[in-house]
Design brief:
homodimer, about 100 residues, mainly alpha, elongated, disordered C terminus, PQ-loop_rpt (chains A, B), transport (chains A, B), SemiSWEET (chains A, B), SemiSWEET family sugar transporter (chains A, B), sugar transport (chains A, B)
């Protein structure tokens, strides 16, 4: 493995693993209201195209790191979906029996 | 420009422009509390390394699209910084004269 392969793998590890801090933050906060789901949909499409590009060019770092990124993107999209019901948490007007006023 | 160049540029446009929905959402909501700043720091480092990799391999699609991504990442980091003071908006205990109890 030459210098270029190592450089490519390093570059790909950074861009792929960049999603990890977002995954960690989402798990901690149990919400991702400010996070755009479209970002991860578009990113995954891009990763899939990079894998195709890497395969055509027999470029191993591109293939490997985009596969990793794709996997992490799927994890983030599942988290965003799982925590979607927190979107309006804290308002609680409709179903909160402890709300200040009488609902009638 | 061959098929591979077009494929690479397309792949890179997807991964780079994936940040645009996040930028749009942040501008609309005027907050990005759930967004991890570390994601964009690590991503930018990766983009810089990809530009180096692309330059070494004379791979134009990699260079061009990572330059674009780097620019968009900087925009997102500026937005995250600009809207940082909204982190605790809505609690307002300390300075809210309309808070229920007497502060003394």
């Amino acid at each position: 493995m030459g210098f270029l392969d190592i450089l490519g793998i390093l570059a790909g590890l950074f861009t792929s693993s960049s999603i990890i801090p977002q995954i960690t933050k989402t798990i901690k906060r149990k919400k991702a209201n400010d996070v755009s789901i479209f970002m991860f949909v578009v990113l995954s499409t891009g990763n899939a195209l990079w894998i195709y590009y890497g395969a055509e060019k027999s470029d191993m770092p591109i293939i490997a790191t985009n596969l990793l990124a794709l996997g992490l993107n799927v994890v983030m999209m599942v988290l965003k979906f799982r925590f979607r019901e927190k979107e309006n948490a804290g308002t609680g007007y409709k179903y909160d029996n402890n709300a200040g006023g009488n609902i009638w």
